[in-house]
Design a protein that fits this description.
The chain is α+β, with helices and mostly antiparallel strands and 308 residues long. Among the domains are: 11-80, Uridine Diphospho-n-acetylenolpyruvylglucosamine Reductase, domain 2; 81-192, Uridine Diphospho-n-acetylenolpyruvylglucosamine Reductase, domain 3 (2-Layer Sandwich), CATH 3.30.465. Helices cover 25% and strands 23% of the residues. The chain is built from eight helices and 16 strands. A five-stranded antiparallel beta sheet has the order 6-7-12-10-11. The protein is globular and about 50 Å long.
């Protein structure tokens, strides 16, 4: 796909491979990768870019499969100009590129309880977009507002009602790029909050393959949560359990494997392609449905094209 590129203060790279920008280390090239210098640079670029050119906002690639054919159009990846963290009382405002774990630590040191973010891989932009959650707490529970740049370059503010948070999801206009978010967390004692996060990390390392090449949970839990993303103790069905019950722990396709430590973690065992990973995921969905009648829904985002 060919198109004219506006002048920018950030960095534009054509035909940029994306495999090294994703945790699974797979994926073809983007037509263009844009790393804006700051919000003004991003806004001016989108305002001047041909409206017909598709735009995809990419975080740190922690919950993403880029298909082997790559992505047509412009991939936008935010960096240093979008990773600030400011704390005012119980409110924490973080740039979309700030890492979830870093925000949790900074908040804890200031006596603000955002500890659920500590073990969530990725950055704040992705956490907001996916209504990320852990240990019964979700972004929606502490969300105040978010700043974004629309596809036409307009800067806007979104409220919780605008985001329409649900389990592992939100709604944003097509082409919108989140640039920051503000949260209001409960007050806490810094030492106690840091101790809690240490315990959470220990528990995660004991139960999840944190040393392997994964993208976090592959499929959403098929039950156990309300439509607003709140925990529902009357239903405790977990994706890993239905995968395990179907005999798919350790299932292999090419270089992809359903992790033997936690079978809801799709893993690049060394030389997987995006096709291996997505194909194994689809195979698991079919076999789980045949075994239990349950349709698993992807939590990992899959984008781009398959090679022709």
């Amino acid at each position: 796909m060919t198109f004219d590129l506006p002048e920018v203060r950030g960095t534009l790279t054509t035909h940029r491979p994306l495999d090294d920008l994703t945790w699974l280390r797979v994926g073809g090239p983007a037509d263009v990768l844009f790393q804006p210098a700051d919000p003004a640079d991003l806004s001016a670029f989108l305002a001047a870019l041909d409206p017909a050119v598709p735009v995809f906002a990419m975080g740190v690639g922690s919950n993403l499969i880029v298909r082997d054919g790559g992505i047509r159009g412009v991939v936008i990846r935010l960096g240093r100009g979008f990773n600030t963290i400011a704390i005012d009382g119980q409110e924490v405002t973080a740039g979309a590129a700030a890492l979830d774990a870093h925000v949790a630590r900074k908040a804890a040191d200031a006596g603000v309880n955002l500890t659920f973010l500590r073990t969530i891989p990725g950055s704040i932009g992705g956490a907001v977009r996916m209504n990320a959650g852990c240990y019964g707490d979700y972004v929606a529970d502490v969300f105040q507002s978010a700043e974004a740049v629309l596809r036409d370059g307009t800067r806007v503010t979104f409220t919780g009602d605008d985001m329409q948070f649900a389990y592992r999801s939100s709604r944003l206009p097509e082409g919108a790029v989140l640039i920051s978010a503000t949260f209001k967390g409960p007050a806490g004692v810094p030492d106690e909050l840091n101790e809690r996060m240490t315990a959470q990390l220990r528990k995660r390392d004991e139960t999840q393959p944190t040393k392997d090449r994964t993208a976090g949970s592959t499929f959403r839990n098929p039950a156990g949560f309300s439509s607003t993303g709140q925990a529902d103790d009357s239903h405790e069905l977990k994706a890993w359990k239905v995968i395990d019950d179907a005999g798919l722990r350790g299932a292999v396709r090419g270089g992809a494997v359903m992790n033997t430590m936690h079978p809801n973690f799709l893993t690049n065992a060394g030389n997987a392609t995006a096709a291996d990973l997505e194909g194994l995921g689809e195979e698991v969905r079919k076999k789980v449905y045949a075994d239990s009648g349950i349709t698993l829904e992807w939590e990992i985002m899959r984008v781009g094209e398959t090679p022709s």
